[in-house]
Amino acid sequence: MAPDEWLPRARAHAERVARFAEPFVARRNAGKKHPIEDFLFTYYTHKPGQLGRWHPGVGVALVGHDAVERLAWKHCRALTDGERAEAGLGPADAPGASPAVVLDAPAYAAEREETIRFCGIILRGTAARPGNFGCFGLHEWAMAYRSEKFGIRHEYLPLRLGADGTDRVVEEHRIRCTHFDAFRFYSPDAVPLNELQPTRAAQRELEQPGCLHANMDLYKWAYKLGPAIPGELLMDCFELAWRVRTMDMQASPYDLTDWGFEPIAIETPAGKAAYVEAQRGFAAEAAALRERLTTALAPLEAELAAR
Description:
Blueprint: H1 3-30, H2 39-42, H3 48-51, E1 62-63, E2 76-78, H4 81-86, E3 100-103, H5 105-111, H6 113-128, H7 138-143, H8 147-150, H9 162-171, H10 180-183, H11 203-206, H12 212-216, H13 218-224, H14 231-250, H15 269-305
Antiparallel strand pairs: 1-3, 2-3
Helix pairs in contact: 5-15, 6-15, 13-14, 14-15
């Protein structure tokens, strides 16, 4: 990929990231919190600086002197003279030759084998299951169940229905969360109320495409696969996760009106209908991203199969 193609893409990626990362960094430096907009930078482990690095994906060499700094990046290497000849670049030591840098896919696959295999299992397994669209976001309510006894995760946010009203919503609904990383934050007294008891070991059998958290986690699988995932796909997953998190908190027991977010009152028929409509829309978007991630993962899986 020539500089006049990849440099604009790298700059566009950095600008796309900055719209989300710069306000977060400013808040963090000021000691302020945002209940929605901080989540992707605090719950997930990918730092803003890491997110800002654009990668072209597997099998794409970046040509030009601006690519040289990437030789210091983990898992990147210069093209061999044989690869340069195939690309019509000529030897690296020829006068005026342009550097060319590519992801070292075999080395990366060997080092990240467990992650690659797990991501493939999760992505394909989730895609193959039917979606559950009857959860109504009750995982957030279960986290706040009996808050007067256990407290709440977001202590600076008021409960929209108060502690007693929140408890009633939990007790009057069927709770069937399939996602371990939501279930593990349940209030202790809410744990036995969940029809399922998700575990990390069972994650590969339970993930399903209607789950908001499973769809947010597409961002996690994208960044865990790191430089093997094109930057545009990574940010598509990030932006979906951002919108899903927004809806997740609007449907939660917390009152976010002072933050500019109207509630989705899932304790009412109208609120349930609004939740399911949005949930189905997110599931459709996530299905397309899940397919793109699976496609991007395939060359790494091929490297593992060839070993």
